Amino acid sequence: MSFTSGVVFLTACTIMVGIGLILIRAILGPTAYDRILAANAMGTKTVIFVALLGFMVGRPDFLDIALLYALINFVVTIAILKFTEFGRLG
Amino acid sequence: MKLGYDILTIVLLIAGSFFALTAAVGILKLPDFYTRAHPAGKSDTLAQTLIMAGLLVQTFHSDIFGFHASIKLALIVLILFITAPSATHAIIKAANVHGLKHWRKEEHDND
User: Fold this and answer.
1) Which of A45, A57, A89, B83 has its CA 20 to 30 A from that of A13?
2) In whole angstroms, what is the distance from residue B47 CA to residue A35 CA?
């Protein structure tokens, strides 16, 4: 294990700590918008984590998953916003 | 040449994790929804761009991650760079239309 992969592992640990802190905000959040914002930020951090995981285990396929997750995260945020505003998705 | 790529990767990754951690602390600690949107919209985007740039440098001399991986990483950066601030903007606009009150310092001096 080289020094660079150690730094990649450290970055992944930092991302997980950040996800934990944002999760506390998602649980506490006074309004629904705080929770949606926290879920969106967690999704962005998850994309980074999946890409780092692909580099840690040495599998390039994980980048495809990260790409899909980035696209789905945006659509999910807009869908949840529309659901909280209008009470339906249609 | 390989050492230069590694040093660049390490610097970019450490800078990116610093910004990711400060964004998370900001989302947790700031007093109001509108102030919390600042780290979620800006600091987070910068953090993901720096980390992905560090990984992109790493693909230049890797045996497993070839040209395809570089293209995919660049696409992830492009997509997140467009969608993450747009989603934050949409959330803030929805909250503003809904009538969420803005935070004032004078009202919270006793907190």
Assistant:
1) B83
2) 21
Integer Cα distance of A80 and A89 in angstroms: 9
Asked if pLDDT for residue A8 goes beyond 70, the answer is yes
CA distance B110 to chain A (A): 19
Pull the structure tokens for residue B108. 């919270």
**Amino acid at position A14, single letter:** T
Q: Could you give the ipTM of this predicted complex?
A: 0.87
Cα–Cα distance for residue pair B37/B47, rounded to 1 Å: 15
Question: Considering only alpha carbons, which residue of chain A is nearest residue B74?
Answer: A67
DSSP string, B55-107: HHHHGGG-SSS-HHHHHHHHHHHHHHHHHHHHHHHHHHHHHHHHTPPPP-TGG
pLDDT of residue B98: 84
Mean pLDDT of chain A: 89
Q: Which of A10, A14, A34 sits opposite B36 (nearest CB)?
A: A34
Tokens linked to A63: 């980048």
Token pair recorded at residue B88 = 């934050």
